[in-house]
């Protein structure tokens, strides 16, 4: 039997209720009952009368939580009374499982079928398996299954080709039918138009979506092939599904899209293509909105795309790149866009976890000055290195948009990107060094009663000590690597910031030498150990070379300051 101990899957059920928040809360309460599941996002829409819920966790826990949510939705939502702009067919309209980490798509499919079977047998709801979990080719596409919607399933369900995969071959009048599947990460994305016309919004949707539109002849009649099948003219974007609709809540029409593969069609490409087609049809895109969560990578790539169009440096902070993406895509037009709530990686972070690098400057200094031995010299050395890389990055960014140097923006942008990477790595080592010290303390705290316990304790202390040598050595390497960037900025960067680069070199040297001291003190009893000796030898060389580079940069800087 496979071990899914560290596996994580995501579940994004869509419930046919977007107005009554008490019903929505009752459903999400069921999800939160299950241990090893974390509710990430609840996104209701009044006009669509639909709520998208996102939660993650251990595969079996997610299946159990999804079942309880579907059961509660069946109790509280009556599809006979449901109206909404979004196509729908059931109280729980769709419930996909998405592999996140530690699990394959093949194994996710198994869990999807487990859920489908339970819903069909225990709740009496007809279930259709879709996408990777589909049992037939005509069930791969959710839109094909949903075609005809709730009302159409009264007759559709009795057709042999539409027999449910699980549950009764009869319509559940109250709960409708449910699609359960396994799929890749999907971005639900709506682009806003300056029109109230659904027909015009649809014209843009048909332009951009992969399926395109039905082909028509010169007289406006639908063209069919020799088999009598409708001929379709494909749209511009692969891995994109879309329709147009009017949202009364906002008083505008939107192009509503599902981006089923963000690597084939990224968020920013979908947005720009909608802009182009809307303009061609006499309309204007005014902004956009994300339904549910979005991967960090998608937002960062969008921000970088728009920065390139502006010929701006990409070597800025993650937060600044996200801000550019939000403003460029107009993600805040209909309401505030909070990255901490909308970006999946940010939502997955353990909010209880406290990091040194998240402290204020004052807080970090006070924590260092406390009675605790950590953070100590190793963490401070890593932070010094991060400041050195940060100063070099600052000079690169200032150079990228210096007046008269416009043709060199990309050159300096590349340097800034390298500097950001070094700074990020060194910041991570601030906490890693303290964790390594704590690991030694934990090893010393192991019992030392009998011979076996003594042997175990000794081995644990040695392993922890070797790790406490490796961590400052990695810091030393990164800080030393930053000298190259710092020197380049002194030589070719904005001359008004040459002193800043010089200070960066001093920080880098302090980092290298501080790490060298940490390595030496931790290696006192392990100098001849095969894992330690090479690190000591290399650390000696880096320490010597850092002195030489710092002197060289100092002379260059002082030579430029008259």
What does the model show?
Strands 1, 2, 3, 4, 5, 6 and 7 form a 7-stranded mixed sheet that branches. A 4-stranded antiparallel sheet has the order 11-12-8-13. The protein has a two-stranded antiparallel ribbon with strand order 9-10. It has helices at residues 21-32, 59-76, 105-123, 142-146, 149-156, 198-208, 267-280, 296-309, 318-329, 339-342, 344-348, 361-369, 377-400, 409-444, 451-492, 498-522, 533-560, and strands spanning 8-11, 14-15, 37-45, 50-57, 92-101, 127-131, 178-182, 187-193, 213-214, 232-233, 240-247, 252-259, 285-291. It has 562 residues and is an alpha+beta fold. The chain has 3 domains: 8-182, Formiminotransferase, N-terminal subdomain (Formiminotransferase-cyclodeaminase, Chain B, domain 1, 2-Layer Sandwich), CATH 3.30.990; 187-348, 2-Layer Sandwich (Alpha-Beta Plaits); 360-560, Four Helix Bundle (Hemerythrin (Met), subunit A) (Up-down Bundle), CATH 1.20.120. Helix 6 crosses helix 7 (267-280) and helix 14 (409-444) packs antiparallel against helix 15 (451-492). 51% of the residues lie in helices and 14% in strands.
């Amino acid at each position: 039997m496979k071990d899914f101990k560290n596996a994580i899957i995501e579940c994004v059920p869509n419930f046919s209720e977007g107005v009554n928040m008490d019903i929505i809360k009752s459903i999400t309460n069921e999800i939160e009952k299950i241990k090893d599941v974390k509710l990430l996002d609840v996104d209701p829409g009044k006009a669509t009368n639909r709520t998208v819920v996102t939660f993650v966790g251990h595969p079996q826990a997610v299946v159990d939580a999804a079942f309880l949510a579907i059961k509660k939705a069946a109790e509280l939502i009556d599809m006979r009374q449901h109206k909404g702009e979004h196509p729908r067919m059931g109280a729980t309209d769709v419930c996909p499982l998405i592999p996140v980490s530690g699990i394959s798509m093949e194994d996710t499919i198994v869990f999807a079928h487990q859920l489908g079977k339970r819903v069909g047998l225990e709740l009496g709801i007809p279930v259709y398996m879709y996408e990777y979990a589909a049992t037939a080719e005509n069930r791969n596409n959710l839109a094909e299954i949903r075609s005809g919607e709730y009302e159409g399933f009264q007759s559709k369900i009795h057709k042999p080709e539409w027999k449910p995969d699980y549950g009764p071959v009869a319509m559940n009048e109250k709960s409708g039918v449910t699609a359960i599947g396994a799929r890749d990460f999907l971005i639900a994305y709506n682009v806003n138009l300056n029109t109230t016309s659904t027909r015009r919004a649809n014209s843009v949707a048909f332009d951009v979506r992969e399926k395109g539109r039905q082909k028509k002849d010169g007289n406006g009649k639908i063209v069919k092939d020799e088999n009598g099948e409708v001929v379709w003219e494909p749209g511009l974007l692969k891995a994109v599904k879309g329709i147009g609709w009017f949202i009364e809540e906002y008083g505008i029409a939107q192009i509503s899209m599902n981006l089923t593969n963000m690597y084939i069609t990224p968020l920013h490409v979908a947005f720009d293509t909608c802009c182009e087609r809307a303009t061609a049809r006499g309309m204007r895109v005014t902004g956009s909105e994300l339904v549910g969560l979005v991967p960090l990578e998608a937002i960062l790539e969008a921000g970088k795309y728009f920065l390139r169009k502006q010929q701006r440096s990409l070597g800025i902070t993650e937060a600044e790149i996200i801000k550019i993406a939000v403003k460029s895509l107009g993600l805040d037009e209909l309401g505030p866009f909070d990255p901490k709530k909308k970006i999946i990686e940010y939502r997955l972070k353990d909010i209880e976890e406290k990091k040194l690098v998240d402290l204020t400057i004052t807080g970090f200094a006070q924590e260092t000055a406390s009675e605790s031995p950590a953070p100590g010299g190793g963490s401070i050395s890593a932070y010094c290195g991060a400041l050195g890389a940060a100063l070099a990055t600052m000079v690169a960014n200032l150079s990228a948009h210096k007046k008269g140097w416009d043709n060199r923006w990309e050159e300096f942008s590349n340097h800034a990107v390298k500097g950001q990477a070094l700074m990020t790595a060194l910041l991570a080592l601030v906490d890693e060094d303290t964790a390594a010290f704590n690991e030694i303390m934990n090893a010393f705290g192991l019992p030392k009663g009998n011979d076996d316990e003594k042997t175990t304790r000794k081995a644990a202390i040695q392993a922890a000590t070797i790790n406490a040598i490796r961590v400052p050595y990695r810091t030393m390497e990164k800080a030393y690597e930053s000298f190259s960037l710092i020197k380049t900025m002194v030589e070719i960067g904005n001359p008004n910031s040459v002193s800043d680069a010089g200070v960066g070199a001093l920080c880098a040297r302090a980092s290298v030498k501080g790490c060298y001291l940490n390595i030496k003190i931790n290696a006192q009893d392990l100098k001849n150990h095969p894992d330690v000796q090479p690190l000591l030898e290399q650390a000696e060389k880096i320490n010597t070379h850092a002195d030489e580079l710092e002197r060289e940069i100092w002379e260059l800087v002082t030579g430029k300051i008259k």
